[in-house]
Amino acid sequence: MSTAFHPAQYDTQLNEKRERLQTLLAPFDAPPPEVFESARGHFRLRAEFRLWYEAGVPYYAMFEQGDKRSPILIEQLPIASRQINALMMPLLEACKADPILGRKLFQVEFLTTLSGQALITLCYHRPLDDSWDAPAKTLAEQLGVQLIGRSRGQKRVLQTDHVVETLQVAGRQWHYQQIEGGFTQPNGEVNQHMLGWALDAAGENNDDLLELYCGNGNFTLPLSTRFRRVLATELAKSSVRAAQENLRINGVENVTLVRLASEEVTQALTGVRPFRRLQGIDLTGFEFGTVFVDPPRAGLDPATLKLVKGYRRVLYISCNPETLAENLQELTKTHRVVRCALFDQFPYTHHMESGVLLERR
């Protein structure tokens, strides 16, 4: 996480990102990107701090990338949510005052939501036992948060290990269970923009959607309203469980969720091999007109690229514009870019999220 915070430079930095994305997409005749800005401050819903001890007194510390010996001691973090900032010092003071809470505490992780919930994980260099629970429960009640204790091989959960986020997309509320330690989009407001753009780009459809890398169902839930049926795939077990719960709590019934890697999806759809995890699922009953992908930073592997080229439309969300451009070299042999977008998930850094909609030529 960057410690840089220069709001006066935000517009300049955002324009540089827009120009960089346009340059990367220029060889593919992409239209100018739709740009979705971030709030200038208090946009980050997650934060992780190491504790740095001076004369036995703990301080929140962050480090520049590649430097673990020169701490930047902080009491507030302007890029973090207001809720995180409000919790930081009361939590630290409580841990300083109670040796059971504070002894060998080395890291604090905050997870907050736009809906006002908060979960804090305290990480220790010592085993935790029952004596930790009572003061931790008192602190959790005082702060109005969920509190978890972690040490090597241990996870002590007082009540629940998740929060529930509520996002507004195209006039509808969606509820997401976000599990401690699981992946969530850090910039909630920009995530809402991403979901809204994907929904608009998808349009109304009478056929089905194939979604790869669905995670906890972040995009799956709203996109389910624009297609007859959805086949969503994800490999990580924890993400699959979260996605199943999110489908349940939102009453979404037209999504079939399967735990498969992208290369396994290719094998299943092309009939190369059967999978027991697909038992009872009739893949031939789907009529996919659109494929949605949100791959890791490495982008799409060659087999998945070959698979997605077989569909009429490709909706691609990318966390790495360089690998997106590499993938487009292949995808634009059969498809053309009709829409693109820049989502400023990570202000004051060089990172950006982008999206493209491709249609078959």
Quick summary:
With about 350 residues, the protein is α/β, with parallel strands linked by helices. The protein has ten helices and 17 strands.
How would you describe the overall organization of this protein?
With 361 residues, the chain is α/β, with parallel strands linked by helices. The chain folds into two domains: 7-40 and 187-360, Vaccinia Virus protein VP39 (Rossmann fold); 46-163, OB fold (Dihydrolipoamide Acetyltransferase, E2P). Helices cover 30% and strands 29% of the residues. Strands 1-16-17-15-14-11-12-13 form an eight-stranded mixed sheet, with helices on both faces. A seven-stranded mixed sheet has the order 4-3-2-5-6-7-8, covered by helices on one side. The protein has a two-stranded antiparallel ribbon with strand order 9-10. The protein is globular. The two termini are 41 Å apart. 39% of the residues are buried. The model has no long low-confidence stretch (mean pLDDT 94).
CATH architecture assignment of the largest domain: 3-Layer(aba) Sandwich
The CATH topology of the largest domain is what?
Rossmann fold
As a percent range, the share of helical residues equals 25-40%
Q: In which order are the strands of the major sheet placed?
A: 1-16-17-15-14-11-12-13
Task: Report the end-to-end length measured between terminal Cα atoms.
Answer: 41 Å
Mean pLDDT: 94
- What is the CATH C level class of the largest domain, in words? Alpha Beta
What is the count of distinct domains? 2
Portion in beta strands: 25-35%
Give the helix/strand class: alpha/beta
General shape: globular
> What's the total helix number?
10
**Any low-confidence stretches, pLDDT <50, length ≥5?**
none
Main beta-sheet strand count, sense and barrel state: 8 strands, mixed
Radius of gyration: 22 Å
H and E order: HEEEEHHEEHEEEEHEHEHEHEHEHEE
Say which CATH homologous superfamily of the largest domain is assigned. Vaccinia Virus protein VP39
Number of strands: 17
Keywords: Methyltransferase, S-adenosyl-L-methionine, Transferase, tRNA processing
Pfam families: tRNA_U5-meth_tr
Binding site for S-adenosyl-L-methionine: 185, 213, 218, 234, 294
GO biological process, one term: tRNA methylation
